[in-house]
Amino acid sequence: MRRRSVGTARILMLKRRSFKQRRRSEIVFFLLLVIFITVLLNLDYNPKEKGIDDIPRGRNESVKKNHGWNLVLVNSKNPLPSNYSVNLETVQNNHQVDSRIAEYVRNMINDAEHDGVQLLICSSYRSVARQQELFDQQVDKYISAGKSYDEALAETVFGLAMPGHSEHNTGLALDIVTPDYQILDSGFENTKAFEWLDKNAHKYGFILRYPKDKTDITGIKYEPWHYRYVGSEHAAAIKEKGFCLEEYLEQLQ
Ligand SMILES: [Zn+2]
After folding, report:
1. CA dihedral 110, 161, 187, 237 (to 10 degrees)
2. What is the ipTM of this complex?
3. 225: CA distance to ligand 1 center in Å?
4. Is 223 a catalytic residue?
5. What are 202-225's pLDDT values in tens digits?
6. What is the pLDDT of residue 50?
């Protein structure tokens, strides 16, 4: 009799304990659910923005210091200043540049011609609206080729700057080819035009803006056709030191 009552009390105690344990795990589960929902609500998930933020765009940093109009830095971290305005002048065919560099562009083209080399501008000043158009077209092209939106965005950004982040928006950059080779790829470096530019562009104030060994800093692929005006003194120093513009500005600060 006594044995049975001890047994019953024990069963009751065990039942109570398992009820308490169940209750505790229910509370823990409920708390976890609340935390999960709170985190989810705060994420404000936007796949488009996430795609852009995830793209590695070189280790260029935001540069605050102003070194003058010819050293303006425009890259993925440094957009075109909002008050930026440019006076344009036509230099070759319908190509326009900042009027302050027009003379140097013409001299460079003429002197190259004297040396038997034809420099052909294929891209010059580009408005931010035009940059947006080109950017969207390129993203669409990659998507049509079967890439996801994020992949298309990543590939586009490596080859084409985002609107407001392109040097072409400044009027200080030129894409230069030659009549015999008008494709924008690394094969341009095997042309006479590239050889001439590599040797002489700095004398007219231009630098090869996206060198082969600096893609991790510029965030832009090697572009043997893209030249940027910085002024002959800076261009000579940049060439001599083997810097890209980001590195040069870093040590000027
Ligand atoms: Zn370019």
Report:
1. 60
2. 0.99
3. 7
4. yes
5. 999 999 999 999 999 998 999 999
6. 35
